[in-house]
Structure formats: C-alpha cells, structure tokens
Amino acid sequence: MFPGSVSHFDDRPVLRHTVAPIGAFVAVVVAGVAGLAALGNVGPVEAAFWLVDLTSIDLHFQDHAGPERATKAYAVLVTAALVLSGLWIGETVVTELFGGRISTEVSRATMQRRIDNSDDHVIVCGYGMFGRTIANRLAEADRRVVVIEIDDDNAERAREDGHLLVEGDARRERVLRSAGVDRATKLVAAIDDSNVNIQIAIVSGTATSTPEILVRVGEEMYEPVAREAGADEVIIPEVLSGERVTRLLERPADRHPAD
After folding, report:
1. 124, 125, 149: which is closest to 137 by C-alpha?
2. DSSP code string of 206-240
3. What is the pLDDT of residue 64?
4. pTM (whole model) above 0.70
5. How close are the terminal C-alpha atoms of the chain, in Å?
6. Of 93, 122, 138, 162, whose Cβ has the fewest other Cβ atoms within 10 Å?
7. In 118-185, which ranges are continuous DSSP H helix?
8. Of 126, 121, 119, 118, nearest in space to 215 by CA
C-alpha cells in the first residue's frame, strides 16, 4: 500500500461528521444497559426494556429488593443522555442535508458505481488545460475517460464536461484503484508537475493489471527518470508544440496576387 493512503472517511465527509454523534448514542445505550443490569440485578434484555419504559423499574422493585432510588436516578440520567445524543444526530443530519453534503455524497456514490462498472477506459490524472484537452478529445472519439483531480475548481469543470470523476490525489494507491486502474487500458499523468507525474507512474505500476502509462514532463532531463519509474511513453508538451510550430513555419506561404 502506498504510504500516503488514508481511510475512506477522508472522502466521505457526511460519514465522518456523523460518526461522533452516532458513537455517542451507542455508547450511552451500552452504558445504560450495563448500569441498569448491575443495579437491578437483571439481564441485559430487561435492562434495555427499562430504557424504553421507566415504569417497569417500579414493577420490578415491588417484588425485588435493591437500590430502587439509585436505579431510577441512573435511568433518568441515561434517558437524558439518549435524548441529547439523539438531538445531536438529528442536528448533524439536518446540517449535512441543507449544506448539500448528502446530495454530494449520493452523487459521488453514483459516480463510483459507474466507474466500478467500467473497463478498457483511459485514466487522465489532472484536469488542467493539457489534461482537459486529452480527456475531451478522447470523449469525442467515444472513449470512456475517468478523470482524477484534487483541485475543487478543476474537478467541477471535469464534472460539467461529463467525465467520470474521482476526487483525490492520483499519487495514492486507493485513489487510483477507485478510478479502476486495474481495468484501464491507458493512464495519462497530465499534471503540470514532472515530479508528481513520475510518482503517479510509480504507484500505477503496482496495479494488478498495469495500464499503458503516459507521463507528461516539463523538461527532457526528466525523460529517463520517468521511463525508469515505469512510463511507457513520455510527453514533453513544449517540445511537441515547438515541433508543430516548426512544421507550420516550413509550409509554403500563401501567395496572393498583387492588386
């Protein structure tokens, strides 16, 4: 596993935000059942029932000796804690709902299912001008594209352009797997940073079924490093642009008849 891997909580904010209140509610229930069972000398099922119906405590102590007052006080305390933790859960869910996070999570889950059902696709890491051009040209040729982008604005642009999207750092093995690296035919490291693209090539090479890896670098000095890292092809946009301009300059100039 790549050292930078993180848990799934990092890209699921709704789940991350609701873990605490739900955990608090569960903890109160467990503590309540355990405490009432010990005070009343009853089983966990009956103690759990007492949390729902406090009047059952009166009925119990009519036939059994024990600390009735302490048990009732503890039951009231637990009930209050359950109400508070329940309100915390409700407040968190409402906040997430009206904050748009729930709809975002649903959209992300739907997108991930589509990616999971994809194969023979092309992964484009980075949706700047270079990556966007590649992704859009491939889409125009009816190739399925999965974009990996960490920048929010670029990610939104990729989403608006209709591409499948994984938001995250393409140097992380988990992110690459979410993009279906094991099923992709090609991967383009298109970020405007040679070192990052080389790191992507290294991590991509750990996939069970490695796609053909194309790496963008900014200078020729990075080409041997990229190939050593696992790149099948190395692209230097500035060199390609210069070669294209040269070809344009070498074309015969259009001649217009004199007036």
Report:
1. 124
2. TSSSPPEEEEE-SSGGGHHHHHHTT-SEEE-HHHH
3. 87
4. no
5. 72
6. 162
7. 129-140, 152-160, 173-178
8. 126
